Amino acid sequence: MKRLLFVLGLVSLLAACGAEPVWAPDEDVRAKAYRDNGPATITLITVINNRSGAGGHTGLLINGSQRVVWDPAGTWWNPNAPERNDLHYGMTDHMVDVYVDYHTRQTYHTVLQELQVSPEVAEQAIREAASYGAVPKASCSQSTTAILRRLPGFESIKPSFSPIKTMKSFASFPGVKTRKVYDDDPDDNASKLPGGA
Known about the structure:
Lipoprotein, putative
């Protein structure tokens, strides 16, 4: 009986932690697709708590045949960046700024680590992110490292649930350019979402 209760409790817990699938229509994704003229890049995005130094979130900005952001288990959304299971399309310069601004506030800063890659690697990164599926809460770093480890040249990145460990592992790749973004916006970032209070 105890075993049955344990199994039922575990199933309930896992169901509560399930990912939330989102699937934008084809016409929205096509209409908002954006191609940046710069080189093919992968940028690891890490959101860090200013008080504790703990990692709050991990994402990936990928610039290939189009520019997308992988925002696993994220809370950001914008109608100009249609989403398919945590992958947002239409990431113009303005949308990238909106995304970073949403995460950056009094209590958190954002670290962007950009690495130039071949167009083929960037395309594979987009495909891997597109096929990964919606990510459960607290698995942003784990899912991102799983995607990166499938890419040529990134096999050595350590799998981790810790955004800080993932950031440190990514920093070991030669050629990484790091930028930190700070902001004094209030901690409640819900107002930065469309229709936010």
